[in-house]
Structure formats: C-alpha cells, structure tokens
Protein 1
Amino acid sequence: MYAITIPEPGGPEALVWTAVPDPKPGEGEVLVEVAASAVNRADLLQRQGFYDPPPGASPYPGLECSGRIVELGSGVSGWAVGDEVCALLAGGGYAQQVVVPVGQLLPVPKGLDLVSAAALPEVTATVWSNVFMIAHLRPGETILIHGGASGIGTMAIQLAKAVGATVAVTAGSPDKLARCAELGADILIDYHQQDFVEELRKATAGAGADVILDIMGAKYLDRNVRALAVNGRLAVIGLQGGVKGELNLATLLGKRAALTATSLRGRPLGEKASIVAAVREHVWPLVEGGRVRPVIDRRLPLADAVEAHRVLELGGHVGKILLVAEGVTSRD
C-alpha cells in the first residue's frame, strides 16, 4: 500500500507519499481500507519530531479515519467485512489501509456520508471525555471554549449547546466568531482585541465559567484560573501556548476549582474503548438526529498531506481538514 511517511522531521515538505508494507490485523483488530482521514495538530507535532507514536502504533500520522472493513483479525465479533466505519487511531490514518483495535471502531452515523465521518472520531472522543466525562458539564452551566473555530471547538460548541449549556468562545477574527455563532455560541470573544477574563465576567454578571476547555496551556493558565467560577473545572487538552506557567494556588483554592490535563493518543486500549463506547451512546444519536454535525473546512487528496499541513499551520480554516483517498467521493 501507500502511506504518508516522515523520513526526517521538518516542515510540511517532510511528508512523503510512498510505498510501505501492507498491515495485517492481529487478535482483536480489523483492517480498514481508508476512505478519508483528518488532520490534527498532533500530526504537525509528529511531523516536526516532537510527538512520537506510542509503542506498537503505526509510525504514519493520522489519528482518525473512515473507511470499510476488509479483513477481520482473530477473536473479532460484531463486525463484518464490508462494514462502513470510522475509527479513533493511535496513528496510521494517512494511509490506504490501517489496522484498528475493535474497541476503537464506530459505525458511520446514519445520514452521514463515509468521507465526512472521518471528521468525527478524534473530536468527539476528545470533547466528550474531557467536557462531560471529566469536567461534568451540566445543563445551565457556562463553558468557555478556546479556539472555537477549530475542529475541537466547533464540535464542543454543538455538544455543549445540545445539553443546554451557555457557550462562550474565543477566536481570532470576526469571521471565525460569526461561524461560531452560527453553531450556537452565545458569548463571542476576539482574543486579539479583547481580554477573555473581563469579557466573560461582564457576560456572566461576574460569575465566570463553570468549565473551560483549553488548548493553549501555559500562556492562558493564570487567566483561565481567574476566569473560572466557584467550583469551576479547567480542562487542558493542548499546549499551543507553552508547557510551563505559574499557577496561583490560592486563587484555585479560593474558588474550590479543579484543573485536569489529558491526552487521548497514549491512553490504554481499555480507556479508549470506554470513551468510544460513550461517544457511540451519547453523541451518535445527536449526529443522526441532525443536532450535531462535523464542520469541514475543505477536502484534499490523501497524497497531498503537505498542503493540508500548510493550511492548518496558517490557521485560517474553520473546522476540520480532510484527506480523501483516490477514487473516493464525498457521497461514498
């Protein structure tokens, strides 16, 4: 088969479409013929040499995909060759075929085409596990979502609104904020022009956010804690703003607040399977009912991952960037 490889770390041009050995499913795994994959910031870090795949994972980038099952490993039940699926991966999505642990498979939601389904596994698993399973966002609470126009952000807005929360977002332009508003965001903050702590305080009559979903890490740490409500929960899922910051524990203590930091890729298979099962139970009905949808900025050929990485790095996109296999259309 062919896959996107990274012979040497570097810029987008370090990605090379080349022939590689065909994968074979082991016990409890299936082989999926990839229809589409999606680009995540973790892929950029892997390309730059900063985020190696966990032991035993595919060396190729790509943390999610959609496609059709073409082979079952031993001990697999409940799935059949020919089933249309999407999947959460530890790597390998930028390829014509990928091996997937059975616990990380999801059926393509009814009413959604096969290609678009590739935009769902990573964002739904990340948002559901952090916002709902860990931070326990409840109806009537306020959530602040940093990077509201990103793939994570656009999904978090929709899921938070679906459970009856008030949604505040930060984004870097009026156009991006307008797109967030279309998805249901209530409080719109341009981080280039406005202080999100002050804007959130004004919008919530001084209360602050019950939950904050943060992709920035160190750069926003102090302000995030100040923006929390009493009994607030800060969920850090990214480090785009650095890895080391100062935290005023007295402020955290005074608000009886909690801070969590998680990643998804390196979790044990059992934990990933539990998250995927929760996504299927809670998120899939919302997708099939039309209340939640993947937001897709553009589709590019799978072999053109170089351009996809350039687009993501420039930051002008809204939602997900998909990589589509040759001969596959968005109707598949």
Protein 2
Amino acid sequence: MAAFNKKYPNIKMKRVNVAAEDVPKKLQTTIASGGELPDVIRIERGQKAKIFDMGILEDLSAAPYNADTSLLFDYDIPAFSVDGKLVAIPDDMSVAGLAFIKPLAKEYFGTDDPEEMEKMFTSWDVFIEKGKEVVQKSGGKVKMFPSLGDVNDILKGQRPEPYFDGNKLNVSALESVLSALVKFRDAGIVDKLDQWTPAWNAAFGGDKYIFAECPVWMPQYVIGPNDKKDDRWALMVPPGGGIVRGGSSHGIPKGAKNAELAWKWIEFTSMSQEGAEAQKTDGVFTHYKKAYEDPSFTNWTWRNFGSQNIGEKFFVDISATTKDMPENINDTYLDEAMSIVLQTLAKDSSFGLEQAMDRIKKELKAKAPDITW
C-alpha cells in the first residue's frame, strides 16, 4: 500500500479486516441487507469458488477494464474465469514444487542434487517404489511424506481435468486420484499426521520425512518457522510437474462506487513491475509474467535452502510445468468430503477405493443434491 500511495497519493484506501473463511458470508449478508459492497474484494483460493458462484463480480477482461491477459500466466486465465469472463486477477504466486531434506536424500538416494533427484523420480510409481526401499532400509523410521493430505494436494493439483462440469462429477478423474492415494497408503510410505496440526508443523524440523509439498509461500511461512537449521532443504520439480497451492486474487463487485480507482489498485499490485517489486519486499511474488524475464527478479534464496536459487526453480522450472483447473461451488463440497475420506484412508487400511467413493457420494448428496455422476 505504501508503494501504491507513492504512485497515487490522492487515492485513499480503507482496509477492512475480515477472516478469509468469513468473506463469503459477509458478502451474502451485505447483499441481503442492501448494504454497500467493498470496491475491491480480496479472494483467498479456499473461498474462490463460493464467491465466484455469487455472480457479483465484474468481467475484468471487458470495458472499461480491458485486462491484458497476456501479462498473466496461461494457467491463470481458466482458473480465474467464469463462463469465459475473467472475474478476478491473481496477486500472489502460489506455484508449488517438492522440497526435500538433503541429508536424508543423500543417505537413501545417494544424491541431494535437485536435478539428479528430478532425473531419478520420473513418475509417482518410481517414487512409491523408492519409498518402499526407504522404509525397509530405515526399519520403518523414515517415510516419504508426513500426511496423506500432502499427497492429495499434489495429485489433485496435477489432475488433467476438472472434478466438475457444472453439476456433473467427473468420476474417472476423482477415482484416478483416490486410487493413487490408496496406493500411497498401502505402500506404507506416508505417515498418518493431519495437516496443519502441531505435530505436522513440528515434522519440518525433524528427520522422519524426506519430502514436503512446497508452494512459494512455504519456505518463509512454514518451513522457516519450524526448522531453525540452515541449508537442510532443497527444491525440485515434482514427478508430473508443478501445481498451484493456495493464492489470492482481487475482484471488483458489480456496481462498485469507485470501480475505476479499484482497477488502478489491481493493475498496480498484479499487472505492473512497480507492484511486483513492492510485493517482493514482503516475500510475495506477482503473477505479472514480464517481471520474470529479469533473472535478478527471479533470484531468491532462503536460509533453509542454503545457496540454491529457489526463485529460479519456482518461477522458471516449476512454473513451466504447472497447470491449474477451473473450479466451481461443488469443488468446495468435494473438499469437505475429501477431508473426511483422507482421515479414514490414513487410519483404516481396510478402507479402499470403493468405500471412499461411496462415502464421497453420500456426503455430496447431503450437501448438494443437484450433483450427478
């Protein structure tokens, strides 16, 4: 905001703090009461589908905004569009790769070099077989991942098709991910920790798990606070390519009183070099594609990763292999069902693909009766 105010000293902004998960409800109550919506809505990925489904956002690719989509990454356009209309502009890069603990990789795979690791792990089938070797060599003390939720994040991000076409569930796409999760579980290479718990956070400072999913924000906000040791981690492109994990965007509601000024804010933060440089000082990286043409901009190191240029790995190597999928309101119901299924999968070895699909269909039927399969 300081950089924006320096460029536009006459534009005054009032920021209202609302917890990300409360934004959809806040918008709904404001609309119902006939209240005034904000000129800009900040949209976290977890609430994106709900907010997009409200139909309250302007088409930013149309006049008077005429957003230049060539300034964004190709995978951004379908992810932030509804019925071919670009309704939000992403403002923080959240591509994700695979991080690993170097001493463990060296011990069990003979190398801690990211490029060598990428050549070794050519597929998830190879990954599973290598994982079995690790478990055997370590006597079960070391596994590949702490949580089946981590694996789901990656496999979901790599799915080749959306989970939903309108209200119709893409059964084959979901079954493909669930089958892989069962395979990971049955191989015994993933532990039973729940994501975002104290035990899961503490695992980053330990020596029990070799790999972690690693979005751009993770070195600074997850790995760093939980692992006080320097130069222990490295970053690589995952088997199957990069994914998008998290991320925020800005949209302008229809009828916004200061839509023109709101657009200046979005253009500055998300579609300009000045905004890119300002955001980088806070460890936030832009979706403004041109910024990454300058090697000095992509150059980024973090103490846990030693001298590795993780900026180049994220924004060049991983980004080049990354795709994203459009989602709708039904994806939020599926996410809720999947959280239940993942816990059961991790803790009950008799719970397989068929039972998982039955449970998901039961949960979806209760939450969204219009969904078909």
Protein 3
Amino acid sequence: MAEANYTTVTLQVHRFTPRAERAERARGGSPFARKSSPFGGGADASARRRPRGKQWVQEYIIPARPEDTVLDCLMTIKRMVDPTLAFRYSCGHGMCGSDAVSINGTPTLLCTASVRDWAKQPSALPQVDNEGFRHIGSERAVPAESEATAAGTLSIDGADRTDANATDATDAPDTAAATSAVSNTQAASGSLGVIELAPLPGFPPQRDLIADIDPMLNQIRKLTPYLQADGVLATTSEGKVDVFEYLQHPDQLAKYETLSNCIACGVCEGSCPVFAGGDAFIGPAALVWSSRFINDSRDTKAMARMDAIDTTDGVAACQSVRACSRHCPRGIDVGEEMWQIVAKVRER
C-alpha cells in the first residue's frame, strides 16, 4: 500500500566531465583585481564561464513522492540507476551546506528542497537555446528533451527508449501542440513534473553537480575568520584567572549572533550577479564572515578587517542588488548585512 503513494519525477541533470589535463593546471589570478588587494587569487572569469570538458544534459525518470527531497531523488539515481552521477552531500538536513546546487536556475540546498516545491511542468521551466540564452514565455515552451518525450521517447539512465506506437517528432504540428501532449501525458501518468539541476553558479564545476568552492573558502581564510582578542585574561580578586573573561552583554551578542550561523554553502555567492557573473569580487560569503568579527565587541582587529575589504574587488564591487538574501538556508539577510558593512567601511 505504501508504494501507491509513489509517482514519477523527471530530473534533468547538467553533467560535466573535465578534461584530464584540467586538474593539473594552476589557477591564475583575476586580471581585474588590484595588485595590493589580498583577494586577487582564485579561479579566473574564463574558467568560471567556459569550463573545459564534456558537457551534456541527462534525463532520469524515477519514482518519487511529493514530500521527498531532491537529494533523496539523486540518491535513488546513484544507488539504483546510474552510479556514475557525481554530487556532494553530508549531513542531509541543511546544516553543513555541502550540497548547494542550482535547482531550476535557483541556488539552494538539495537536502532542503522538496519535490513538491520544485517540480514543474516543462512549460513552466525557463528554456535555454543553443547560444545559452534563457527564454520566458510560450514561444519556446518545450525543450528538445520534452519534445522527444511528447513523441514517445523517454531517456532513462542515458538510454533512449522509443514507444513503437509513438508518432515521429516531425509530425508534431507546432510547439504548442507538443506542450499540450507533454502535459496530457504527465497528467495521465501522474508525473510530478520536471526538476532541472546544475552546478552552483559562479564556481568552476569539478564534475557533474560538484562545484569547486575553494575560491570562496580561500577568500574567507584570507580574512582571518577567528576571534582576535587583546589576550588579557581577567582575574578574580584572589588573582586567579576568571573563566568568564569574555562576558558580553546580550545586546553585543545580538549584533553578530545571526551572522555566526553562516555555513559557507555558497548559495549567496551563486545568487550574486557580480560574483556569479565572473567579475572580480570577494563575494558576500566572505564579507559576512568578516562582518561577524567586525561586529564582535571582543575582537580588536576591526579596523584591520575593514582595511582588508576596502578594495576595488571588496566592498566597492558590491552592487547592492540583494539577490544574495533570497535563498540563504540559515535565514541571514545577506543583502542588508552587505549594506551595513559597506556603510561601516566608508564611514570609519
């Protein structure tokens, strides 16, 4: 009886296999970064935009329930259909941030994204033409994969299976008819829809859905993301070390407590049009980590931290679009924090 709750969902996965020599190449610095800036290293814009290797979209049709997560679906594919599919995950409940990808064009975590919320009918998905431009509207409502599905061709585990009773795709009168055929087929079969998966934008892909987030982590490391106090230990009246030497008022804690929840997942950077666009920018994640210690009353290096991010590829590169706030899995208003840290740097 439990199996009756299962229907099907289609996952369109953007896959990538790097060239053998890619792993051996050293990453170059950004040509736009100022030489005095500590953030000049990392993957360059060309590596982000034009990864070298084999790229293709593979479609998987698997049984699923609306309450399943997208990570559950990928695990089903990995265990039962295609063991070569590569993706990253760890805790599985939104605490580690290791499974950040792009779902239907939106950066988010696999383990917190449910099939119910993200599965869409093909006509609702933004389509990409051969030149990489997304189209919104009814003119290009059905991608090539969906047209093949309407014609009776289903791709499971990378292999095409054609229904002998299906009509040829060239017999379809127009795109609107193909869209109607797909919708009717899915409605009859009880399909939950289609989910498009791609690596996290703004980072060089390593393999399939795994993005190289080392550039982000290196930027955070350069900002010394740890408390730097004055080193003077408080003592009691008897001359003994006081174990509560770093007591804070609740109002002081409130200034950075939310920021300390950042899990460095990269969702904010994948949403940022400046960072994901390939321009030289330290990125919102590194600025959040810097702001966390700048706002900590116990830290004595606030001025040095602000000097470090007061560069052309630091706070000056932030365009205040606030796209970084939309899908933070930890509920941090990253855009507001960016505005606050920029104001502090300029007013100091």
Protein 4
Amino acid sequence: MGAVTVTIDIAGLPPERIVFEPSPLTELGVALHALAEPGHHPGLHGWATATAASLKPDLADRLHEADFLWTSTFSDVFMPFSGIRGGDGRTGATLAEELDLLDRLDEERFLTAAMEFTCSRSYATGVMIEPDRALDLAASRGPKQLGFARRILDDPGAVRAWLRRLFEDCDHAFFADTWRRVGPGLAADARHKTELLRRKTLGDALRDVSPALSFDEERGVIAVDKLSEGGTTAVDPAVGPGLTFVPSHFGWPHLMVLHAPGWRPVIAYPVGAPHLPGPASVEILKRRMDALAHPLRMRLCRNLGRAPYTTGELAETHGITAPEVSRHLAVLKRAGLVTTRRRGRYVLHQLDVAVVARLGSDFLETVLR
C-alpha cells in the first residue's frame, strides 16, 4: 500500500490567510458525534451518558432522525463558513452567527453537503449525483436516510430550516453550557497556534496540531496521514485563498479534513487528547500488522515476549536455520516490534511489549482519524 493521505496545496498562500479559529457549529457537530458514538470517545462516557439522559424525548427523536449527518460521515453543513461563495472563510463567534452562515450557503452546496451520506463518491467532484441515483443509494442505507433524502430533494429550504431549529434546540438543551465550558480553552489553543505560526514556522504549528500532519515546504503541500485519499487547494479563487484550522474539545481521535472542491480547506483537530504516545502513521501500522501476520513470526514473538533470546536459541527452538531467523527478526525490527541489545559477544532480541500493547489503540485511532 502506497502513501494514503489527504493533501492541501498551499503554494503561494500568504501566512496571514492561514487561521486558527474555534467554530461553535463544528464543535456542536463533533459533540453530537460523541453523543451518538461514545465508543469512539472513551474519555467522554460520563458526559455522553449525562447529556443523553437529560434530553427531552422530542429532541432525542429528532437527533436520531438526523444522526447520519454526524455518524457515518461528518457533514460539511457543520462548516458552512468554508463554503460561502465570495465569503472570507472566517468562523462565527457564536452558534447563531454560524447558523446564519449555514442559511447563506447556496442551495447546490447545501444539498451536496447534506446528501453526502448517500453519495460520498461525489465528494471529489463537489457535484451531487442525479436525484434518482441518490434515492437508490439512500434506500440502501435504510428508511431513515431514504425519508430524509426525499424530504431534502423535495424541499431543501424546509429541511435547512428544520436543521437550524434542531441545532438551536440542542443549544438550549445542552450545548450553550458546554460551549461556555470548552470554548475558552479552544480559543486559547487557537491563539497559541497562531503565535507559533507568527513567531516560528508553519511546520512548528503543524507539529503542535498533530503528528499526523506534515509539510513539504518545497512543494508547498500539507499532507494529512489518514486511511483515505483526496486533495484540494487553499488558493481556489471561488471562495478566496485560505486555510482554516479548527480546534475541538470533543474531537479525539478524529482529525477531520474538509477538502470538497470549491470549499475553503478546513482541518478540525482534537485538543486535550489523552496522554498517550503519538499515533502511528498509516504506513507503520500496516508494516506492523504485516509483520505479525506470518505464523512463524507470531511464534517468535511468543518467545521474545517472555524473555530476550539470541538468534541461535530461536533457531534451535523452532528447528530452522539461523539465517532464516535473522530474516524474520529483520522484518519485526523494521516494524519497530523488536529491540536488540548486546551482552558480551551475544546479541539479544526482545519483543517491545509496550509497542505491541498499543497496536489495538493504534489501529482504532488510525481508522477513526
């Protein structure tokens, strides 16, 4: 598997057009995702349980009706500031301001964003597929998606108003209090990243955002290490040049990239993630899983996980030649699963138990990133 990344071309983009700003509507969307998928966010179980228990039945039912907008995908309707034609690409200071921006999205862009759950393959083109095909795809996802698809195709204005009321009711029910609690921390993080960008370099700011981000200065390209592929540009004249980074309290382990054609690119990144080692890259994770897929290497790991062994000892234990053991150990070492140390004239190999213990978390964080 080659490199799997989402890229953002920023060649020639003035530094002042790269901004770090909180977004109340984006954070509401991420909070709704955490509420619907608490398994993705083990550190938020208490909040999710208490919030779900406090919801009135009518609001809970309406959230269930629309939850595909923040579960199977994260709809771009939560980032309308990036899709306003001729807009400045800046987030709103309040949820009400960002809902006003959602109202300003033109009908085509609103439909494309809201229907993404039925026709995600159209994301790379930014053009919604034909209505009949969209309904077929919606039907395959179940009656809830089909009913929503019919409603939005028949009367997009009414659905847009329905969504606004839904988000306003969420604000009254729980999000206003939540935003008062987390908003100041997100604003502080955005200021810190802005200072890094101003006083140091974009690379320094990106490293502070996430280890999954890298910057090729020569090409002027930001790469986001994800199990998905895509690309966009931050110098599209349709919406004005710019790139927005949005911090999120509820986001971990997700690192979301809006890269729809004609929309201002957005990277929503988690703040305050658990104190764990940095996430493995997609390539390293694949290398480790491939290394462990071989039955003999699995048996070698059984020995190496218990105690350090020399190549000769492993060869004798498994009835194979020392060169064959060395070849398998080389694969495990390239994957970072085995360490070596010298004791006199012997070289001892041992399984890095901490790295292996992280594989489950690394896999989960990578597929959810």
